[in-house]
Amino acid sequence: MMGVRMDKWLWAARFFKTRALAARACDLGRVRANGIAAKPAREVRGGDRLEIETPGGRFEVEVLQLSEVRGPAAVAQTMFHETEDSRALRAKLAEEKKSLPHFDFGSEGRPSKRDRRDLNRLRGRG
């Protein structure tokens, strides 16, 4: 196998849940191959260095294996090698996110008529 479409490989390597999401990320410039913005139809080859931005974070990986088929997660993890800098940056961002205050807005639902009256009184509306 010489090469695989970028969107197929990203989907098979489980960076994106669907191939359409992988193609959309390529179109939006969130995937770079060897420093160049990648289109969905670009061929991925072994040894390519990819920069991928997903909702889960930013990954810098080196392609080790090619596949057009989405398999188990354990197999998908053998398809690439993430750089140490990328892992460290994602771990740092995760720690920063944990340290941010968490706001719980309560799950009581809509305010009752009594609550609404109290809120209006508090706001000076009568």
Taking pLDDT < 50 over at least 5 consecutive residues as the criterion, the unreliable ranges are none
Distance between the termini: 74 Å
Strand order in space, largest sheet: 3-2-5-6-7
What's the order of the H and E elements? EHHEEEEEHEHH
Mean of all residue-level pLDDT scores: 91
Q: How many strands appear in the DSSP assignment?
A: 7
- CATH top level of one domain is Alpha Beta
CATH-level-4 superfamily name of one domain? RNA-binding S4 domain
% residues in beta strands: 15-25%
| Shape designation | elongated
- Overall SS class: alpha+beta
Which fold name is given in CATH as the topology of one domain? Structural Genomics Hypothetical 15.5 Kd Protein In mrcA-pckA Intergenic Region, Chain A
Structure characterization notes:
The protein has about 130 residues and is of the alpha+beta class. The protein has a domain at about 1-85: RNA-binding S4 domain (Structural Genomics Hypothetical 15.5 Kd Protein In mrcA-pckA Intergenic Region, Chain A, Roll). It has 5 helices and 7 strands, in the order E-H-H-E-E-E-E-E-H-E-H-H. A 5-stranded antiparallel β-sheet has the order 3-2-5-6-7. A two-stranded antiparallel sheet has the order 1-4.
Write the layout of secondary structure elements.
Layout: E1 4-5, H1 6-12, H2 19-27, E2 31-33, E3 36-37, E4 43-44, E5 49-54, E6 57-63, H3 73-76, E7 80-82, H4 84-99, H5 113-123
Keywords:
Structural Genomics Hypothetical 15.5 Kd Protein In mrcA-pckA Intergenic Region, Chain A; 20% strand; 5-stranded antiparallel β-sheet; two-stranded antiparallel ribbon; 126 residues; alpha+beta
